[in-house]
TrEMBL record:
Keywords: Plasmid
Species this protein is from: Mycobacterium intracellulare
Protein name in the entry: Uncharacterized protein
Lineage: Bacteria, Bacillati, Actinomycetota, Actinomycetes, Mycobacteriales
């Protein structure tokens, strides 16, 4: 059995997801109240799911 070939076009990452991750990664001391509850593990988990 032959394995299916990967898609020729890579999946484009969502711009909003990129901006959220960039803001969470760039600021270790998060000034936004909602961002203060996000742990580094959750940031890594989101990055792995959103940007493949």
């Amino acid at each position: 059995m032959i394995a299916p070939l990967p898609s020729a076009m890579p999946r484009k990452a969502n711009v909003i997801h990129q901006q959220i991750l960039a803001a969470l990664i760039a600021q270790p001391s998060r000034s936004n109240r909602l961002a203060q509850n996000v742990s580094e593990e959750n940031v890594d988990r989101m990055a792995a799911r959103w940007i493949r």
